[in-house]
Design brief:
With 617 residues, this protein is an alpha+beta fold. Helices cover 29% and strands 15% of the residues.
Amino acid sequence: MRCRTRATDATRGWIPSTDRRHALHRADEGLRALHAAAPVMAMWDDHDITNNAWTDGGENHQPETDGDYVARRRAGIRAFHEWLPTREPRARTGDPKDDPDANLRYNRVAHFGDVASVVMLETRLLARTDPAGNPGGNVFANASGTIARWVAKRERAPARWRGSDLERTFLSLRDDLDAHRASPDREMLGAEQIAWIEKTTKASAALGVKWQVVAQASPVMDMMSPDLAKGAAALDENARSDAPPPPRGHASWTAALRAWVDWNGDDDDDGGGRTPNAKRVGVGGRDVPVDAARGLLAMGEYRLNWNFDDWHGYVADRAKLLRAVVPHANAAVILGGDSHDSWAGVVSDDARDWERPQGSTAAPRRVGAVEFDGPSVTPPGMFEHAHAWCPRALIDAGHLSSNPHTLRHARTGQRGFMLVDATAEEFAVDFVLTPSVRDASYSPRCDASFVARKESAGGDGGGGSGDWLRLDARTCPDLPDALARLSDRGGNGGDDAKAAPGAWAVTSLFVVAVAFGAAGVVAGRHAPCFERSDGGGGGGGGGGRVGGGGHRRSSSAVDGYVSSNGGGGGDKKMSARERRRYSELVDADVADSQLELGEWRDERRGGGGRHEREHSH
């Protein structure tokens, strides 16, 4: 198969598993039904290539044993385009041989009428610099190890950290990490894509589109490590409201945390605090590793960033992204994923906050953008994976406490997706959770719901320079009936679960999910008008086309705006004739997209045919 590549040295050769992974995923009944029911905007992420992939390498790709990285990268992206209903970007020169990486330029925009323009970014392979190489290495492991090995045993106890040499060590580490994160040499997007983002945002806003939506891989808003001490205090303070009770055997959340970290160092002289203790039992009866618990406590206490693979490892480029969007948007929305957990919040409109590695120092005077980051459909999040002993409620409260000015919602340890309903008046997001990833039958539930609105300073909803963006929590609405899965497979749907006629269908504007290795999926009820990214943001050859040429896909235009994105030309409104034509295409696409995609893939791999000639690179 073409998407499989071998190293030249057969003894050290490798065959990428990307193709087999795609085949496995396509065996999933629900995923097939999703593609048959709705257009899908998908974007790859690192696991389509290798963990923490970047332009010239990956965390677990070693050239001496794994072969040529460029070959591996091209194989993964070729498989992505072969298995998904995509429009592969054209080569700028017209000759694919002269532009072998043209299909990496997959940033594009979809216009949902005059309601929303969804810009999909490529943040992994076009321009990203190495996420590794920070001065702290694995920050969590090193923080835990530093505490465990600290010669002055008395200072290992958290009660004695204040003013100690250990504290000074952590503060120095924080400064080094922040300087590294803020380096202008660290990039995710590159200058060309940032210029394209700004141009596209300005064009959408000028046409009167209400929401300029940036869909990309990971959280953009402030997201410092969870402060467990402040989180425990917040849970105790809210004990009479909706906060969960403290863990069994402990009078309060603070008492539980102090027992887990051996706050006063009672055991440091006998085994370094690692001796099993009846009071150190965490989630699921797990023994709490005291050194690890102290490391997690220190990361929040001293605001040590641990993730250098998301936007918080690329602070300068994050500021460039926000400068390209926030000042030019009518109302800016950021959609993300990759963390595998659920987050909602705001981004300040003050550019000085964007440039600070530690984030906003006060509540934003005005909101520059609202942000929603969806949970994964199946894989676990980092905190439940690395800190399984720690209750989710404490992790979540710790995140809210360490990011008080911008974060509004945190839910780790639970899988699901986001359901978005956008109108000209509001942009609403429901965080939908599923109780188990091991059972195909389930009753989804809404865990939290938020609505963004843009209002005038006088509150009358008028336009003008006094307009401001706000984000409010709301009571969860009833979920669409079509999201209820059939419960006749012995699942946990319950007696009152509503059975949908066949697989579930998308009934709101779009669903955002983080699935397997993909950075994000946007599935629309309203088929959007897609604008190709050919030529990037600069002066590439030719303008973008309404709809798509070559292979017909299930993401044709129904209504809205189209743009030329290869240079000049500007945006234009679709004519009535174009809307009728593409409505006809949508009817045909939804019916035959899966069958035709399978035929196209088989034909392509068989070595000939119309699609081979049109799509071969």
